[in-house]
Write a structure and sequence with these properties.
By secondary structure, the protein is of the alpha/beta class. It has 9 helices and 10 strands. The protein has one domain: TIM Barrel, CATH 3.20.20. Strands 1, 4, 5, 6, 7 and 10 form a 6-stranded parallel beta sheet that branches. It has a two-stranded parallel sheet with strand order 2-3. Helix 2 crosses helix 8.
Length: 264
Amino acid sequence: MAARQLDHPRPALSGVPVFMYHDLCEGAASDRYTASLPQLTMHLGFLREARFTVCSLEEALRPLPHGTRRAVLTFDDGLVRQCDIGLRVLVEHGFSATFFVTTSLIDTPGYMTWNQLRGMRTAGMTIGSHGHHHADHTAMSAKQVEEELRRSRGILEEKLVAPVNAFSAPFGFVNRSVAAVARQVGFQHVCSSLPWPVQPGMTMIPRIVVYKNTTREDFAGLACGSAWPLMARRARHSALHVPKFVLRRFWPAKFGVGPIPEEQ
């Protein structure tokens, strides 16, 4: 299909979309946050056919030259199927992505190993931090946040022998205090789950979640900056923000709130 047939009208919103995937599967997805192999292939196929440049987080923050299109791909949690399925599809399309991993879960069942992470780096992928434990950092003291993030970054840099400059907040729970601590320990990019295109100079990077029901048409609209789907996503995000915090208070274990577990 020709690229011109895929082009949407001039985007109503400027900026660069940063997409966030979680788990992947070969067939039909059951979990809301899991994308299927055919779905991921369709999304990446659209970006290639519509002549998007898939860039890094750092490049997304730079001014966008007229007539160019950029997008960023990210994956949270460090799940093993992101390597088994996602890496293969990314390489086939000639794209790169940033994978945010929780360091205490590396080398545990269902998650990537250190050897897989090294292989992903060799393939051109970027590895970022998703914290040391998959926990709500906004419920921690500043000291706890610093210990968590400094530990995660230090482990990643030591094991991968490479700088780790990006952090994404588990559950999308991040505030100014957490972001400030993240920058204090050396992270240049702090990612949230607020759905909106990235603008030059932003200090916190918004990202657009990909769900199991995100169709090619939905993805195309979000990628091209169509105002209505992005505003609808943002309104939904705001509406669910308060219930999430209520759940966090009365069901803390779901969000990793409480004493930080000791390293095994």
